[in-house]
Each structure stands twice: as C-alpha cells, then as structure tokens.
Amino acid sequence: DKVKDTLEVSKRALFTRNKSDIEKVKEDEKLVDQYCSGIMDYALKLTGLQISDKEHQHVARLIQVLSDMERIGDYCENISEYAEWMVDKKIRFSEVAQEEMKAMLEVCANSYYNAIDAFVNSDKEKAKRAIEFERRADVLEVELRTKHMKRLTRNECDTEAGIAFLDTLVGLERISDHARNIAEEVIGHLYSSIM
Description:
Elements lengths: L1 H15 L2 H29 L5 H37 L5 H27 L2 H30 L5 H36 L1
Helix pairs in contact: 1-2, 1-3, 1-4, 2-3, 3-6, 4-5, 4-6, 5-6
C-alpha cells in the first residue's frame, strides 16, 4: 500500500510540481526501504528454520516480490526528483508531452495496481491484466520516445524538459517491468501449487 501511495503522489508531483508532494515521495520511499528491510530480515530468518522445500520456495517468491516493490519505490523517487529538477530549472513539459506522460503513467500504474491485487488475492486474471498493461507500456514507451524525439528535432519543446521526459518514460517502463515480475510470480505460484 505504501508503494501504491508513493506511486500516486509521484504521478501528481510530476504535474503539480508541488514541493510538499515531492518531499512526501522522498519520505514515503524511505519508509518503503525500511519496511522492505524489516520484512527481508524476517523472511531470511524463516529460511534458516526447518521448513519444507515448498515453504522455502514460497519465501523465495515473497523476497522476489518484495525486491520488485522496493525498486518501484525507487523509480517513484526518481520521478519526484525529475519534478523537483524541473521546478528548480523553471521548465515544464509541453501540453502534448503532458498528455503523453499522463497516458504512460496510467498504463504503468495500472500494471502495478493489477499486479498487487493479483498478489494479495492470488488472482490469475489480475496477474494477466498486469502483464497486458506492461506490454502496452513497452509499446507506448517506444511510440512516445519516437514522437518526443521528433518534437525535439523540430524545436517544439525545451531540451532540458525533453531530458526529464525521456528519463521519466524509462523509469515508468521499468515500473511496469517490476509489476510484470510480480504478476509472473503470482502465475508461477498458482501454477506450481496445482502441480
């Protein structure tokens, strides 16, 4: 939930450029790191106990999901840093770039939201949806990068804002990659529990 909140605030910070939103993302990301560290320590202690192979596999999957969540938190912090950099430089995305970025944010966020719902509820259909959103994010990232490069060559947008746009695209696409990893863990777990 904290990663989900951090993603929501980082999405908002990119457009509102509100310093309190930017600071909230940084604070929340520190909490995510603390939660992940505590949970990781506990999970590793579990592996030292006499547990079955199936339980070891379950703990290993939890550790992998935890790692993906922590990385998503890192990318949210990066997005807030791009927003902060843009505030400091007094630059903005063009209207077209804003609309494109909003589309990418929604696709990538939906990938994560579906992946987390799939994980919490062991829901194969939500996991499949998360993977579908991740595929859309891959296609959209290439499409938006190409369009943006054309705008840059035509001097239709600020070069520095263009750097932030492209870096944010990469970070968002990676968020969807980690969401896909979570979804695949869910599908793999559900499949292996049938076997």
